[in-house]
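ingest -> validate -> predict -> emit
validate: passed (alphabet ok, no gaps, 264 aa)
predict: started
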Amino acid sequence: MKVVAVGNQKGGVGKTTTAVNLSAALALLGQRVLLIDLDPQANSTSGLGVEADGNDSLYPVLLGQADIRSKIQPTRLERLSIIPSSMDLAGVEIELARADDHLTRLRVLLQGLKPNDLFEFCILDTPPSLGVLMTSALASADEVIIPLQCEWYGLEGLAKIVHVLEKIRESGANPTLKLEGIVMTMFDSRTNLARQVVEEVSNFFPGEMYKTFIPRSIKLGEAPSHGKTIFEHDSSGIGSQAYLALAQEFLVRHAATGPLLAGH
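emit:
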């Protein structure tokens, strides 16, 4: 099981949209996926139409009061499971901060899932902050995908999170953490600004930037309000096409194949 954190400490960049729809697309392409919502705002949870309370989240698991496998729930989508979140998860920030092993506790829990071969990929939707939950996710992940909005402020945020990745590696908490890729979101090819931001990122991270760009789309914004993925809300639109293409590119990078991959 490959653990992939979707992270950016800046809000409003399409992080949760990417976590949910990349997970759904990978499941559609034949991969078994576990989405873990680590954001106390629980947007991934509600975006999939899942209702959860504090007992359903990782809160008791991180405090050693429950088994992580007991929190895995199926979703409407075949091959896609979720560990939901709730506002109660915000309290774990304080409790974990007091623990000496706060950076590695989640990593140990996820390592326990790997030998079971239940999932090909575990996607972590992280909070838009650099708190304990975010750093725990980075210390637990094999790799990180950074969604980046096509605006100049996005470039500033990119520099910060890349710096944080370096610090996590240097601290010894996760020395093999890899920047897997940068996904350009809210892309509008009609604007010079979007093209300039893409050019800047491609100059500095030519091997990491995904070739698939996620466009600005009203449907992508609407889907979470209905508790649906973009594939359920607008199956033939530009948003679903983009996230399916992103998932295909992701699988090529990981040399993985799914039964539906060749048909798309």
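The chain has one domain: 2-254.
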